């Protein structure tokens, strides 16, 4: 590290040289900076004087253009100093501090600063801007004194450390407050009157942790900034009409798992209610992950069966195995369609599939707010923080500890650690309370030249897939919103049984479905997919290479056909494994050995969800108008 000069007097300089020292025990001590005081006289040389508690030693003479490090360091600890030339509190390197006395050493300066630690009058408040500078200087003084074994009064030390701690707390609180205010930015411009009171209450009470414990008078309206934070937390605001309108079923013969319009309801019907295990096993097999990662086929079969069992535990209309299969397929379709598959290793791809599979495992069919208000066991376990999301991932990993379901038995310690980290990050990111923070972080990353961290990118993909059904064809979207409405109605009934206030939009007799869907699409789903699409394109640009350098593609086009077969036995899998690598796509040989092959120059991601979001939002607007007319007619009919 090059020397930094800090002027001491008119005829001397202080040079800071980055280094490491070796003490008498031959142990290397790494220091931020070794301060070497070189008092250079007019004649061009001088000696550096050491602290009076140490044995004096002569320093070699130096010229203005050269600098040497102290090698006689048996009794000298390195001094940490980052202080500027003119310190705001101590004027540490002021030319007149010692009346221009060139005999003062860095030790004298530190002792002077230590003495100042006892001065507590006129200190700026911890939450003031000036406190940042003073706190930094005092903390640096303490560090330097400790490294030089310079004595300090215990009371002074504790008081100063407490002062610095208060400064850090104030900075943290201020930054948290600022981030919360910025989170509201996407929604704060909305006119309060444009949001019906019931929708406002539902958003605030259901999807905001801070609102969940606050009791309001019936006449009080939550401010829309609170609703903004609610929507941030608010996953799946997907509401539903109560009419039984079923669109014509998709032709399963035409269905492929690679398509955005994949109809998981048809697949579930065809597989007799076992779509999760079929979709899951299909995706694992098409990339030969069991063989590559040495995953027991029997354990994988058992694991997928237990996943279906856990999703069926509470007989949820929405958060069930069909939803898990839908999110899994949507996650896969996004990374397949965009080419993000080429960015992932086999272990990372497997982690993404498993995260999608387990992301709502053993969901109770009730919201986090319900658990908090009812003081459920799971809320107490996870301290009201991402209650369900923590349970999903924890329960899944507890299951994998059992030998019969241990799909990770052949993973090394590092592979298990990295796999677990990715799965936890992705599943916890499905908690809507982190929605706006997640988008803000990704927007910030998109504006920087650095590459995007994989865990953050994959978390956003899973989060987007989890709220993706408004971006699907109307028939699919409407079926999901209808199911979710029923699940919320059931929660409302449980709340009445427990004597709890009925959450907004959980009352069968009082709902505003279309209005909530419009806001959900406009302020949650659309922005999420815009950011995700931009993220995918940035990643692809970092991977692009000339077409002439591209290897054969590694992504097959195998489909879930009209006659899906159950997962093969271990024997049948082994018998067929030698032929899997010979599968062809468009006449080209599949290369299953790598998930990280470069992609072509085309880095514009196709976004099939855009048109569906627009169409569905327009349809909900028409539904809202019709809903309003029906409500007005009902009022007229009830008038005497």
TrEMBL record:
Domain PDEase, first and last residues per copy: 238-627
Top-level EC class as recorded in UniProt: hydrolase
Region Disordered, annotated ranges: 49-68, 547-601
UniProt keyword terms in alphabetical order: cGMP, Hydrolase, Metal-binding
Domain of life the protein comes from: Eukaryota
Protein's UniProt name: Phosphodiesterase
Cofactor: a divalent metal cation
């Amino acid at each position: 590290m090059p020397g930094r000069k800090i002027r001491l007097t008119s005829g001397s300089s202080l040079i800071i040289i980055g280094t490491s020292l070796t003490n008498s025990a031959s142990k290397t001590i790494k220091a931020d900076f070794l301060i070497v005081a070189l008092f250079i006289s007019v004649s061009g040389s001088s000696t550096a004087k050491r602290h009076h508690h140490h044995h004096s030693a002569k320093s070699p003479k130096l010229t203005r253009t050269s600098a040497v490090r102290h090698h006689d360091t048996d009794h000298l600890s390195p001094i940490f100093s980052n202080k500027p030339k003119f310190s705001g509190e101590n004027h540490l390197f002021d030319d007149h501090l010692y009346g221009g006395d060139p005999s003062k050493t860095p030790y004298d300066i530190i002792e002077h600063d230590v003495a100042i630690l006892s001065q507590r009058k006129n200190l700026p408040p911890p939450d003031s801007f000036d406190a940042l500078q003073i706190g930094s200087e005092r903390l640096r003084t303490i560090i330097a004194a400790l490294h030089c074994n310079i004595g300090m009064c215990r009371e002074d030390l504790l008081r100063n450390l407490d002062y610095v701690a208060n400064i850090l707390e104030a900075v943290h609180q201020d930054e948290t407050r600022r981030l919360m205010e910025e989170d509201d930015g996407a929604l704060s411009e909305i006119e309060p009157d444009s949001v019906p009171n019931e929708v406002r209450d539902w958003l605030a009470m259901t999807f905001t942790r801070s609102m969940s414990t606050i009791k309001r008078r019936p006449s009080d309206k939550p401010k829309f900034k609170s609703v903004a934070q609610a929507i941030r937390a608010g996953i799946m605001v997907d509401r539903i009409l109560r009419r039984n309108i079923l669109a014509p079923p998709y032709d399963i013969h035409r269905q492929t798992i690679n398509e955005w319009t994949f109809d998981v309801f048809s697949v579930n019907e065809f597989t007799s209610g076992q779509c999760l295990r079929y979709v899951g096993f299909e995706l694992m097999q098409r990339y030969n992950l069991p063989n590559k990662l040495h995953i027991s086929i029997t354990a994988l079969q058992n694991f997928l069966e237990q996943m279906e069992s856990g999703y069926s535990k509470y007989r949820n209309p929405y958060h069930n195995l069909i939803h898990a299969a839908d999110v899994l397929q949507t996650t896969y379709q996004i990374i397949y369609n965009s080419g993000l598959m080429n960015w992932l290793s086999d272990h990372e791809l497997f982690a993404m599939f498993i995260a999608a599979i387990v992301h709502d495992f053993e969901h109770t069919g009730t919201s986090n707010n319900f658990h908090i208000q009812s003081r459920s066991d799971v809320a107490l376990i996870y301290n009201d923080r991402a209650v369900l999301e923590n349970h999903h991932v924890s329960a899944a990993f507890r299951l994998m500890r059992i030998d019969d379901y241990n799909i990770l038995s052949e993973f090394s310690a590092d592979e298990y650690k990295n796999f677990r980290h990715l799965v936890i990050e992705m599943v916890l990111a499905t908690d809507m309370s982190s929605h706006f923070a997640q988008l803000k972080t990704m927007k910030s990353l998109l504006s920087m030249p650095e590459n995007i961290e994989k865990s953050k990118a994959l978390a956003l993909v899973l989060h987007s897939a989890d709220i993706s059904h408004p971006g699907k064809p109307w028939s699919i979207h409407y079926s999901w919103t209808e199911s979710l409405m029923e699940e919320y109605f059931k929660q409302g009934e449980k709340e009445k049984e427990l004597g709890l206030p009925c959450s907004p939009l959980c009352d069968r007799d009082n709902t505003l479905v279309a209005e909530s869907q419009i806001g959900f699409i406009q302020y949650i789903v659309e922005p999420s997919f815009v950011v995700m699409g931009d993220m995918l394109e940035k990643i692809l640009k970092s991977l692009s290479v000339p077409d002439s350098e591209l290897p054969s593609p590694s992504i097959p086009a195998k489909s879930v056909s009209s006659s899906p077969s159950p997962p093969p036995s271990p024997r049948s899998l082994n018998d067929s494994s030698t032929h899997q690598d010979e599968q062809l796509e468009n006449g080209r040989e599949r290369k299953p050995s790598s998930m990280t092959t470069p992609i072509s120059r085309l880095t514009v991601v196709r976004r099939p969800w855009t048109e569906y979001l627009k169409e569905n939002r327009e349809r909900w607007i028409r539904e809202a108008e019709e809903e309003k007319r029906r409500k007005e007619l009902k009022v007229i009919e009830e008038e005497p």
